């Protein structure tokens, strides 16, 4: 039994050259929660007469597995998704695997570095936790960075392993109107702190890769789960720093299990694979979903 949170009424779909995207990470099998968010994304792209892009977010080779990439494409197709551009179909913004888009991330990093938006940070997770009084003060569980390395210069840490961190304008309210959830306001330095754009192990961070790709792929509306609201605020700062036009945002309510816990890849029983193996049809799985984009 799956519970749904209340569904609010959507705003009109912006239609001029609409480009939406599905951006799954192949770190496990897709579950019903992904499918519901993606279904909204697909419905909004269709209603706007626009394009839907599939991007494989396989940046983190320590977490993703090749078998999940194939399973992802198969499960999406089985469920009824059709994309206009993607890893299997190609398109004008190829490649559609993040693991092949390194130059886009390098360029973005260089721009941020030249604009002095980022600084090298040598803190480990442990250091940050030790220095943070309220480690879970913000919504997405990422401790607000205490600013230990803010004064670092690249020349000073030459022989250290370091991450690049974005300096947020502390105290500034980042406000935007979400297509589903309405007006959102998050305060930099309070709801989220300086965040990593390039990891110490040399892998571009999700925030940077996502913004570089959404901009390069000319995405006009980002439809994603409400768990990423804080990340959206971080990303708005990146759009601004990089001089990229801001897309619209539409955050979907998260799907919860019967105990009120949000669905995650560990909910194997609700993976599309297992539901399919149990003989469920996509139509029956979608039966109770509110038609947000209609
Ligand atoms: N790959 C990310 C995820 O699966 C994408 C999130 C997004 O920006 O929509 O959580």
Offer a concise description of the structure:
By secondary structure, the chain is of the alpha/beta class. It has 8 helices and 11 strands.
Approximate helicity band: 25-40%
Number of strands: 11
Bound molecules: glutamic acid
Topology pattern, helix = H, strand = E:
EEHEHHEHEEEEHEHEEHH
Describe the strand arrangement of the main beta sheet, using strand numbers: 4-5-8
Calculate the terminal CA-CA distance, rounded to whole Å: 26 Å
Q: Give the quaternary arrangement of the chains.
A: single chain
Judging from the principal axes of the Cα atoms, what is the shape?
A: globular
Rg value: 19 Å
CATH superfamily: HUPs
Q: Structural class from helices and strands?
A: alpha/beta
Query: Can you tell me the CATH architecture?
Result: 3-Layer(aba) Sandwich
β-strand percent reads 15-25%
Structural write-up:
The protein has a single domain (3-11, 18-292), classed as Rossmann fold, CATH 3.40.50. The strands form five sheets. It has a three-stranded antiparallel sheet with strand order 4-5-8. It has a two-stranded antiparallel ribbon with strand order 1-11. With 294 residues, the chain is α/β, with parallel strands linked by helices. The chain has eight helices and eleven strands. Mean pLDDT is 90; it is low at 1-9. The longest helix is centred in the N-terminal third of the chain and has 16 residues, at 32-47. The protein binds glutamic acid (GLU). Residues 23-25, 57, 210, 224, 228 line the site of glutamic acid.
């Amino acid at each position: 039994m799956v519970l749904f949170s209340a569904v609010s009424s959507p705003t009109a779909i912006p239609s001029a050259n609409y480009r939406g995207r599905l951006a799954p990470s192949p770190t496990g099998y897709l579950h019903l929660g992904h499918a519901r968010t993606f279904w909204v994304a697909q419905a909004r792209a269709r209603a706007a007469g626009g394009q839907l892009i599939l991007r494989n977010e396989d940046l983190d080779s320590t977490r993703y597995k090749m078998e999940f990439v194939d399973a992802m494409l198969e499960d999406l197709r089985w469920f009824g998704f059709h994309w206009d551009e993607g890893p299997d179909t190609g398109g004008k913004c190829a490649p559609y695997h993040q693991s092949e888009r390194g130059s886009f991330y390098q360029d973005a990093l260089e721009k941020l570095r030249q604009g002095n938006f980022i600084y090298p940070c040598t803190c480990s997770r442990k250091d940050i936790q030790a220095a943070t009084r309220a480690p879970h003060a913000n919504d997405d569980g990422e401790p607000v960075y205490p600013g230990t390395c803010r004064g670092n210069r690249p020349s000073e840490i030459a022989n250290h392993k370091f991450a690049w961190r974005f300096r947020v304008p502390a105290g500034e309210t980042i406000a935007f109107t979400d297509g589903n959830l309405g007006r959102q306001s998050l305060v930099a330095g309070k709801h989220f702190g300086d965040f990593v754009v390039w990891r110490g192990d040399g892998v571009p961070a999700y925030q940077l890769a996502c913004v570089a790709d959404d901009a390069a792929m000319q995405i006009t509306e980002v439809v994603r789960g409400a768990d990423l609201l804080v990340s959206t605020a971080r990303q708005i700062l990146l759009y601004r720093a990089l001089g990229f036009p801001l897309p619209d945002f539409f955050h979907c309510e998260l799907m919860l299990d019967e105990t009120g816990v949000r669905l995650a890849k560990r909910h194997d029983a609700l993976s599309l694979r297992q539901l399919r193996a149990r003989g469920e049809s996509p139509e029956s799985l979608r039966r109770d979903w509110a038609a947000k984009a209609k």
